Every structure is written in C-alpha cells, then in structure tokens.
Amino acid sequence: MPAFEPRGGLYSVDAGVEVMTALNRHWVVLGAARVSQLQGDARRSPLTVQPVGYSVSVGLAYRCCR
C-alpha cells in the first residue's frame, strides 16, 4: 500500500438534534440523534472504513435535590 500523506483542512461535518423533557419533578427523559460525515483527506484515508457515521442515544435521569 502506498504511503498516505494527509494535508490540513476540514476533518468532518456533523449535525444532530437533542431533546429533553421532564416527566415530573424528578424524572427527565432525553434523546439525541447525530450524523457525521468525513471530509477531504480524512475521507480518502486508507484507514477509513465508512465515511458516514450515525448515532442515537436515549437516557433517563433522576433529579434528587431540586
């Protein structure tokens, strides 16, 4: 495999949304979805398997002292 010499520049572009809502005085539900796309030399790297990544998360939190 030939040597890869990356230069400077934009690494990735990310976008996402986060939502949080209180169920009652103590309990909170939160969720998030995000997408990330590699750009430029990061995208062309021989180590790159997938240039686009996705993530989703969901959480539940308890507020005790409010």
What are the salient characteristics of this protein?
3 strands; 52% strand; three-stranded antiparallel beta sheet; 66 residues; rod-shaped
Which secondary structure elements does this structure contain, and how are they paired or packed?
Blueprint: E1 12-22, E2 27-38, H1 40-44, E3 52-62
Antiparallel strand pairs: 1-2, 2-3
Tell me what the structure shows:
The structure is a single chain. This protein is mainly beta and about 70 residues long. The chain is built from 1 helix and 3 strands, in the order E-E-H-E. It has one helix at about 40-45; strands spanning about 10-20, 25-40, 50-60. A 3-stranded antiparallel beta sheet has the order 1-2-3. Strand 1 (about 10-20) and strand 2 form a beta hairpin. The radius of gyration is 19 Å and the shape is rod-shaped. The termini are far apart.
